[in-house]
Design goal:
The chain contains five helices and no strands. Helices cover 68% and strands 0% of the residues. The two termini are 37 Å apart. The radius of gyration is 21 Å and the shape is flat.
Length: 161
């Protein structure tokens, strides 16, 4: 599998910009709640408009980062179908089996650890170096899972399964 990274980044930037513009427009035309005497600053479309604008900004930055880049030569490290298949299968296992079976933080930590571990493990490296890397991946996975669960529970007031 060979990736033309600059071209892929440009296509991704265009797609993300279009999605961000659609989110911003959708938030702008969303019904207001003035009829219920709700303050105009608490419009329901405010968050989608802000997220859409942020997505458009990130898309522009991504597109600008590809200026002057050419496609990499085929001799560099490239992705493969095994990694792609693993990512697709493990994501399906997470969504269909882990979420709802385990508490969300545990399912997310397990998912992140296995996913990041798969792509971080280097068979040619010494075992001690890989062990250190896996310890970092484990700490990272737990921190991100707990952070996401806390954000949803206390920030968005949404209980995750």
């Amino acid at each position: 599998m060979r990736f033309d990274t600059p071209a892929a980044d440009r296509i991704t930037a265009a797609t993300l910009f279009a999605l961000g513009a659609a989110m911003s427009w959708g938030g702008f035309v969303m019904d207001r709640l003035e009829s219920r005497q709700i303050h105009p600053a608490s419009i329901p479309g405010l968050v989608p408009m802000i997220l859409g604008a942020a997505m458009m900004l990130c898309a522009v930055l991504l597109a600008l980062s590809t200026r002057g880049q050419t496609a990499p030569d085929a001799s560099g490290v490239q992705g493969n179908w095994t990694d792609f298949g693993f990512a697709a299968a493990w994501s399906c296992v997470f969504a269909l089996l882990l979420v709802g079976t385990l508490p969300f933080a545990a399912a997310a930590a397990l998912y992140i650890f296995i996913f990041a571990g798969w792509f971080s493990w280097q068979p040619a490296e010494p075992q001690a170096r890989n062990a250190k890397r896996m310890i970092f991946v484990a700490v990272f996975a737990v921190a991100v899972a707990v952070g996401v669960a806390a954000l949803f529970r206390y920030g968005f007031l949404v209980r995750l399964p």
